[in-house]
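Pasting as-is:
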Amino acid sequence: MTAAVFLSIVLIHLAAAISPGPSFVVAVRMAASEGFKVATALALGFGLGAVLWAAAAMLGLAIVFQLVPALFIGMKLLGAAFLFWIAYNMWKHAKDPLAEAQIGTEPRSLLSAVRFGFLTFATNPKPAVFFGAVFVGLVPMDTPLPWRLAILAAVFANETLWYIFVARVFSTSRARNTYMRLKAVVDRTFGGLMALLGLKIALT
């Protein structure tokens, strides 16, 4: 592998990471509602989830999905169900005040935020297909281990740093105050969007 190929993989993944999806919706809401520190922990979970699927693609999971379509369908339905669950809770608690305003502490532990971010990413099998499609042409089977580890590190950095940036932007006082004023509308809007994304995952 050459440095040019490695850079191509990094830039392709960065473009994919930046494109809006379920992770972006969750990150924006958590940053606005629970602050920068919790949203940063969420970003770490996203990064770990991305590494999971990138490593799985390197091991040939995308090919397994092609050979056993039922497995991919099952994973898609599981991912859609998880997004529907998030959407349901957003709608159910849309009118609830922020927990932080009630008890003066962060409403979610950092470990819980990491776990939630990881589950959000891990229950969507489409990244495995994306990485598989990229790796088939750019990461041959004889790629040395150091290059493979470098790719996984770059994937983690891309995903994590992008969502830390999102966390920084949407955790500002202005964004937070706007969210507190419009919490019911924002949560129901995001909940509806999550449900639509879940439906898209289930049907495509």
